[in-house]
Amino acid sequence: MQLYTAQSFAQRQSLVVTAQLQQAICLLQMPNAELSSFIETQSEENPFLELRLPPAPAPSSALPRSQAAAGDDWDRVAGLAADPGPSLYVHVTAEIARLGLTAEESAAASVFLDALEPWGWLGQPLELLAPRAGLSLEAAERLLAKLHRIEPAGLFARSLAECLRLQASEQGLLTPLFAAVLDHLSLLAAADLRGLCRACGCGMEELKAVLRQLRGLNPKPGALFDAAPSPQRPPDLLVSPGPDGWRVDLNRSTLPTVVVRADTAQDFAGSAAPYVGERLSVARWLARAVEHRNQTTLKIGAEVVRRQRGFLEEGPARMEPMTLREVADAVGVHESTVSRVSSGLMIATPQGTFPLKSFFTAALSAREGDTAGSAAAVRHRVRQLVQAESPDDPLSDDAIARIISDEGVTLARRTVAKYREQLNIPSSVQRRRQALVTGAL
């Protein structure tokens, strides 16, 4: 066998994902706040790049109107500057100082305070806290009994039963039957009222009277504190009614602007010329990439709004089925581009503020002559039917499937069960038990 070397030539095309292309792809799914942080980081390394942020909104003392109010600026949420009051830690510290404890007890109480969970319970067992506080287990029990006198009742409880027991004792509700119910909370959690009656040795009417009192107690007394409003992420797209239909705009109040400072390049000369050219090129590319990101976002948002006009006017029941491919074909971009844009952005509509990806939902089969419904609309219908059902006769999955099928959308029982689980709705048997526990029956 003879071996030899040879050269051959071939021509082929391939797509190379450069670093700039990767960055441009990442820009597509960045919300406005994240985009601002990225541009600010780039401007710190590039003397020819400047981040220009929109002016801060004027503080408002008035509460914001509903999200459904057309024309509302999202920045009105800055008006929610109410005083949240003292934190749980500050409140308990002040209460401990009023108990008249000894110096040794005060030092040990600080260990208990550090173990306090945000909802007001002790987060660690007493067997571990006692040696850390330098106390015997008996002394720790005595100190804990003093801490249980702190208002609101239920703080420093070691379990749900103890938390409710402390509150019931303070309100004069701790009868032998009430104590027996607290000893069998597992049966109450399973909504087994008949088993609870047998365990407590009482009738159903007596048990229901105790449950009405139990519902008036607070299982998490620490949650009364630290009630500052959680920050809300502003939307990236705003939808409002216009003269020719629905209008989509970028949220300019949070949208950053890239400014290329090409006029400062003349301050550099000589050996810095290669550096100047490279930095200017990067700054100009970033400005074009951000503008492309904004235009792509606006086009995709406009197409989504065009297809979901029924939802904007009538709510979730009119959510139309829509796929990534349909929007991509209509806009003229790749399906992956639509996926990236919709996964990271929020859109404010008259029905509320939602992730853009929530508008993409599959179509369900329909009878001949009927319009196919979307999975989101059917889930909304399932929720409506459960909310309107009679507590003593809740709808089974089969009954819900029949009702929705009679309305035109073919639906199987297992599909109803899947949607019900997605909505965190218990089964009909569990719903009836919960109605018994809450006193609805």
Automatic annotation (TrEMBL):
<protein>
    <recommendedName>
        <fullName>RNA polymerase sigma-54 factor</fullName>
    </recommendedName>
</protein>
<dbReference type="GO" id="GO:0016987">
    <property type="term" value="F:sigma factor activity"/>
</dbReference>
<keyword id="KW-0240">DNA-directed RNA polymerase</keyword>
<comment type="function">
    <text>Sigma factors are initiation factors that promote the attachment of RNA polymerase to specific initiation sites and are then released.</text>
</comment>
<dbReference type="Pfam" id="PF04552">
    <property type="entry name" value="Sigma54_DBD"/>
</dbReference>
<dbReference type="GO" id="GO:0001216">
    <property type="term" value="F:DNA-binding transcription activator activity"/>
</dbReference>
<dbReference type="GO" id="GO:0016779">
    <property type="term" value="F:nucleotidyltransferase activity"/>
</dbReference>
<dbReference type="GO" id="GO:0006352">
    <property type="term" value="P:DNA-templated transcription initiation"/>
</dbReference>
<keyword id="KW-0238">DNA-binding</keyword>
<dbReference type="InterPro" id="IPR038709">
    <property type="entry name" value="RpoN_core-bd_sf"/>
</dbReference>
<dbReference type="Pfam" id="PF00309">
    <property type="entry name" value="Sigma54_AID"/>
</dbReference>
<feature type="domain" description="RNA polymerase sigma factor 54 core-binding">
    <location>
        <begin position="85"/>
        <end position="261"/>
    </location>
</feature>
<dbReference type="GO" id="GO:0003677">
    <property type="term" value="F:DNA binding"/>
</dbReference>
<comment type="similarity">
    <text>Belongs to the sigma-54 factor family.</text>
</comment>
<dbReference type="GO" id="GO:0000428">
    <property type="term" value="C:DNA-directed RNA polymerase complex"/>
</dbReference>
<keyword id="KW-0805">Transcription regulation</keyword>
<dbReference type="InterPro" id="IPR007046">
    <property type="entry name" value="RNA_pol_sigma_54_core-bd"/>
</dbReference>
<dbReference type="InterPro" id="IPR007634">
    <property type="entry name" value="RNA_pol_sigma_54_DNA-bd"/>
</dbReference>
<dbReference type="Pfam" id="PF04963">
    <property type="entry name" value="Sigma54_CBD"/>
</dbReference>
<feature type="domain" description="RNA polymerase sigma factor 54 DNA-binding">
    <location>
        <begin position="275"/>
        <end position="433"/>
    </location>
</feature>
<keyword id="KW-0548">Nucleotidyltransferase</keyword>
<dbReference type="InterPro" id="IPR000394">
    <property type="entry name" value="RNA_pol_sigma_54"/>
</dbReference>
<keyword id="KW-0731">Sigma factor</keyword>
<keyword id="KW-0804">Transcription</keyword>
<keyword id="KW-0808">Transferase</keyword>
